[in-house]
Amino acid sequence: MQHAPILRAYLETPMLENARAGSFNFLNILREAVEDAGWRVEWRKTGEAARLAAPARRGYALYHMEAPTHERALTFRRAYHYPFWSIEPVAQRWRFHVAETEFAPDAVDPEEARAFAAKLRGRVLPGPPPTQGDRVLVPLQGHIRRCRSFQSESPVEMVRAVARTGRPTLVTLHPNERYDDADHAALARITAEHPNVTIGGDTMAALRDCAFVVTQNSAVAFDGFLLGKPAVLFAQSDFHHIALNVAQIGTEEALARAAAHRPAFERYLFWFLRVMAVNATAPDARQQVLAAMRRGGWPI
């Protein structure tokens, strides 16, 4: 093994500690797959210095939710829910393999998809059956006054567009984002002009009884699929296939069609997770890991 290709996985704490202790199932599967292929694995702490040094090191690098640093590097992240994972050559979710693959609902068995979605829903979103209310849920993310390259409009303009529909609208703030005084002022101006808009609340509680979700590309919309909630996207995303995309059909049409939009939610979830992602609990999980690495350009 001395001259075997080496894979350095750069991880943050506590994931690094769990990897070294062998208590992180997906990383155990990944290590076994790579070692069975004749490679060596090193668990390393990520950080600015480590990332700067990585391109000059021989071998291959793997990051968690960080951009690859060179052509021999890949990145991995959870595909929204355990035990599903993505291994990709880019960090932007809208450039992932699944995002660029066509979804064919007729290729998915409806009964198998229904059982899969019901089991996943019971595990990650337990509670009473969802209801179809009238309120629109708008879960905000960060940088709400900026329109970035992957967005059709800024989040504030997105909120304003929903407000103009006149529908009751709940806008929730991301708990891990920082909103400054200018952000709050921008939202306050909208609520002053549009009394149908409320700022703040329990996002996941509102998801269960909303009419539909409007977002840039928040994972809340993906969870909404589990509850049969349509989504309008104002940004590029990996789960764009069954959403109404503003960039494609325009803001007004997307919002007008949303309440009645009924795509193949369960078949899509089965395809996105069971077909396209790495399932760390599958009997062939190691083969799935290696296939994703090869698709990313590694000769393994």
From TrEMBL:
Give the superkingdom in one word: Bacteria
What's the protein called, per UniProt?
Answer: Capsular polysaccharide biosynthesis protein
